[in-house]
Amino acid sequence: MAYTRSIKEIITYPPSNLDTFELLSYEWIDNLNFTLNPKEYLDNGEDYIQKAKERFLKAGWYGDGEIELMWIPPFMFQGNGAEELTNGVIIWHVKQIEDGISWILSPIKLPCQTEFD
Predict the structure, then answer these.
(1) pLDDT averaged over every residue in the chain
(2) For 25, left (φ over 0), alpha (ψ -120 to 50), or beta?
(3) Sign of the alpha-carbon dihedral angle for 35, 61, 22, 115
(4) Per residue in 85-96, is it b (16+ CB within 10 Å) or e — as a string?
(5) pTM score > 0.70 for this model?
């Protein structure tokens, strides 16, 4: 079987670090077949979810939808000075049920749309 890194090898920061993450909204991320439930992969997943929830609510999220993880592979960052991103990037995501807006927390700046903070 091929080797895959554990999410715990990529998320090596405490929940409080989510306060420093880039906050973005995006219309619309419709394929959620590849999202992961943080509670299934992190020992204290609920602590991370609570911190993400606080950030999203402050930015205008309606509070509906499930906060999940999405992995962006490292090849998506080539040429942007991201040689150290060999594990890729895991972002925190929730899709607002009311209108389909996606809210994202990322440890690095992403080439997306509307920024907050």
Answers:
(1) 87
(2) beta
(3) positive
(4) beebbbbbbbbb
(5) yes
What is the DSSP secondary-structure string of the chain?
A: ------HHHH--S-GGGGGGSEEEEES-----TT-B-HHHH-TTHHHHHHHHHHHHHHHT--S-S--EEEEE-GGGGTTTT-TT-TT-EEEEEEE-TTT--EEEEESS--S-S-B--
* pLDDT tens digits, 34-73: 999 999 999 999 999 999 999 999 999 999 999 999 998 8
Q: What is the dihedral of CA 48, 12, 117, 46, to 10 degrees?
A: 0
- The answer, yes or no, to whether residue 3 has pLDDT greater than 90, is no
Largest CA distance in the chain: 43
pLDDT, greater one: 106 or 85: 106
Q: Which residues are registered as beta bridge partners of 94? A: 103
Q: Where are the domains of the chain?
A: 17-106
